[in-house]
Amino acid sequence: MSEGTPDSNDTTQLYVHIAAKIRDAILRGDYTEGDQLPAVRDLVTEYGVSDRVIQRAFKILREQGFITTWPKKRSIVRALPPNPEPDPAATDPTGRTEILATLDHLLRRTSDYDQLVERITTLERDVATLRAELHHHHRSPADDDHSDSTEQ
Asked: Signal peptide position in this chain (predicted)?
């Protein structure tokens, strides 16, 4: 793996780092509009990572408008966006933004979960009330006669 590459156990840093390196190469002019990027398998070998890491790096570059990818074809460099997004590794080398976004997502899911539990509890109470009312309305007349005789 090349110098300056993050810890290989931290896949988030790896794909962000690889995307930044490819983006930098595009911005330097190493790749120009219409050029094909190296094949995923070649980048897997070059960086010593899984194809999933390379695919995630390509996803970042697609989202930022640097490349286009077609199924079963290599990724092609697009015309540079007018105002390329800043390199996330340079602006947030710790990955703090992504961590905060993940935490925010999890907190929203927790809130959804709490609301769901509250709704289920309410529904269970409603079902119990309805069952009691149904039982009360469907008692047989013999039950009423029996209750009258015990009251006398």
From this structure: none
Low-confidence stretches of the chain (pLDDT beneath 50): 1-8
Within 8 A by CB and 6+ apart from 12, the residues are 95, 98
Looking at the domain 11-93, which fold is it? Arc Repressor Mutant, subunit A (1.10.10)
Q: Where are the alpha helices (DSSP H) in the chain?
A: 11-28, 40-47, 51-63, 88-91, 96-137, 141-151
Rg (CA), the chain: 31
pTM listed for this prediction: 0.49
pLDDT value of residue 4: 46
CB 11 within 8 A of CB 51: no
Domain boundaries, the chain: 11-93, 104-151
